[in-house]
Amino acid sequence: xxxxxxxxxxxxxxxxxxxxxxxxxxxxxxxxxxxxxxxxxxxxxxxxxxxxxxxxxxxxxxxxxxxxxxxxxxxxxxxxxxxxxxxxxxxxxxxxxxxxxxxxxxxxxxxxx
Amino acid sequence: xxxxxxxxxxxxxxxxxxxxxxxxxxxxxxxxxxxxxxxxxxxxxxxxxxxxxxxxxxxxxxxxxxxxxxxxxxxxxxxxxxxxxxxxxxxxxxxxxxxxxxxxxxxxxxxxxxx
Lengths: 113, 115
Known about the structure:
A: mainly beta; 6-stranded mixed β-sheet; globular; B: mainly beta
């Protein structure tokens, strides 16, 4: 069953603007991860936030996690044309599912120069 | 360079052909995964291997047959595929199944087209 759902499905912004993508999920998680996929390439891991963390930063990326609302957001600040890609959230469950991820459908981000 | 290499990058085959996809990882990981990525659908987990043992077959049709001879190599053998099997097939690896909070490392995929 689909776990993560990203919103919006597509986002178009100008270079220099901030981009915010949201992810909602249904069941309890151990961690939530964000990945980027450039056209014709595989997924690249961006950032992992544990279920007991509320916010995490990595360079121009800021991720928040609200386990009470079962949602997360990815903020890319000062976007660049090179940030154009699809972004996916993925949830990691516990128990015997440790290590396995369930992906959402993704947000297509277009950054115009 | 992600440390996960998939070959071929593109494959066109007829429905009666037999072909194989190959994945190799140089990260020293022990868990490997096959995913199917179709347009407008979430990534679908197909198979999971941990220390060469298959731990999950996500109701994948038997025309897809995985093989994991060692922790560094993963194959997907294809036989009598259908047009709806056309997709991007992604291989990924992680340290070890059963450990929490691990990222997965992906190859660039094989774009498969069934005629």
